[in-house]
Structure formats: C-alpha cells, structure tokens
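Reagents: none. Just compute today. Ep1-like glycoprotein.
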Amino acid sequence: MMSVDSHFLPLFLFLSLLFVSQGVVPPSQTFKYVINGEFGENITEYDASYRLIDIPNFETGRLPFQLFFYNTVGSKGCLCLWFTNGFPRNESQLRWVWDANRANPVHENGTLTFAADGNLVLADVNGRIAWQTGTSNKGVADIELLRNGNLVLKNKQGNFVWQSFDHPTDTLLVGSALTRGGRNKLVSRVSGVDGSDEPYNLVLERDRLAMYLKSKILRSHCYITLPNFSLNPVVRLVVWWSTISP
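Predicted 3D structure written out:
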C-alpha cells in the first residue's frame, strides 16, 4: 500500500487545502457578458435607461427581482437589481434596490465575467476593473439570484461565500441587515443622475442607529439617532415587501 512519507506530509496537506480552496465553477456555469444591445421600454426610477442581463444557465429574472445594467447619464452604466413588486409592467413600481458600482460606472461594451476561479468581475471596455466580489479561489461553485433579491456566490455545499445582502447601497430588503460597528451601511446618492456616495449615511453603532450628514464644513455630523439598540447585535429595516414564496 502506498504511504506518504512523514517529511512530505505537511506539503501534501498544504496542497490538498489549496486545491479545495480554489475555484470549482463548472465550465457550463461560467460566463462573460458584454454590455450592449437594446434598452427596455418602461419608465424607471431616475429616468434610467436599462438592459436586462440575459446569460445562459444563469436565471437573472426571478420576480420580483431582476438583474440589470442601467444608465443615468451618457453611455456609462451600473450593475444593479431591479424591484418590480411583482408587476413588471407597472411603470410606477420599478425601483433600483442594489448597485454594485454606483459611484464607478462602466462604458458601453464593458463586461461582466464569472470565471472558473469563482470571482465575479465587472470591467470597463479598456479592461479596468470597476467592481468585483473578491472571491477568486475561495471555493465558489455557483452563482444564483434568490427570490428575496439576494445575489449569492455559493460553494459545493450550498453555503454562501459572498452575498449582496452583506453589501447594501441605499436600500435594505427583507432578510438583509445592518451590522453593528459600521461593517456595512446605507449611503445616499448625490442625485438621480450622479450615483456618487453623499451626503447621508445610516450606520448601526454600538448602542444606536445613527444617520450622519457629510458636508464640506463638517467632516461628519450626527444628524439623527435611534437609541436603545444595545440588546440587539443586528437591526433589520424592511424597505420592500413581497408576498411571493421563496
């Protein structure tokens, strides 16, 4: 029977762990999507132009949430989630509830790539990386948009390696949360056209929920607080509600 020499055992274990941690995405699940094509017809929040992402073997349209690229100015766009409230043709109900690269848009013919190493990358047309999940070689095996609006990267066991619920922009969905200590926060945008981060920030601190106002005069000014959160490490704020079963 073949045995591993004790001198090589540490190296063997290291290589085994390295192999396990590397990306294991099946070729059928990888994709490279180029941002182009016709825009949608409905009126949306911010009067944005938009395109539904259509990727084989990746279900991007699970009502009431769908994955899109949208543009508010020129040819620059953002990867986002669209909330339809279950009525995709009701123009007054179309809302953007999560943005990957709101303050760092990409141009026409940029790409969204889910590679074999398990990293989801949004790159500009010149190759510049505008946003990524940072999950390269971390055991990611699949990508899925859940019916609660959570975009997730999962390992073979179905555990989440990365999820959009941990990285909200200006909206909390049912099941997402702010965590104590400012590890994530809600940040307002400058305007409907400008998606840069300003001026309000909603943060869960040690014993309160606080909204901060940034300005050129005050570096950070606490605008409003909700005290007595010391007993709860996580506070959930419901923004949108859906009756569609998971």
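The radius of gyration is 21 Å.
Action item: order primers for follow-up constructs.
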